[in-house]
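FYI - complex with copper (II) ion, inputs then prediction.
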Amino acid sequence: MTARRSRLLLVCAAFCAGLVACLGVIALIAGPNLGALSRIVRFNFSSAALAPAQIGGPFRLVDQDGRVATDQDLKGKPFLVFFGFTHCPDVCPTTLFDVSEVLRSLGADADRTAALFITVDPERDNAAALKDYLSSFDPHLRGLTGDAEALATVAKEYRVYYKKVPLDGGDYTMDHTAIVYLMDKDGRFVAPFSLKRKPDVAAAELRKYL
Ligand SMILES: [Cu+2]
């Protein structure tokens, strides 16, 4: 547990250092003209919104009940997508808890949305493992697994990075992108979905796409 935690901290620290380095380079290029920099940043966000096809796409996986799950099941529903794994010590359970709060806050409207938890650890996360794990969270959450190739394909579509990291004693953990994606009812990417706000505020954003 302590090794995992320090491993997690290390990954976070490396990420932050990288981010700071990137911002430093951007600041150097932009020089004192920070107004121009904010315009560049804003421009990139709006161009991302204009090219929604770049994130998301078709998939064919299996859910926690062993049923085939495809992108077609989601037609007509806005949905959230999160990639993770059931052995995750921290980020995944926290995120799934927060998503559960949002779904609960949606009340009856939760039936008109969907929330996917796609594993990046198919070796351990079969349908039964997902079912057991998800029993702790909102029942609207659908856990998806599949073979390594199918999962690599969907992760690539969503631009999700993941990597197996060996731990002492032969165990392993997974590094992975921890973004919750908000997709509209046509399966197009809308924006990263923030959980750093009250569940009813987050639910109100999701409701806008019903
Ligand atoms: Cu995780």
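Residues 18 and 24 are 10 Å apart (CA to CA). Residues 84-85, 88, 91-92, 176 surround copper (II) ion (CB under 6 Å).
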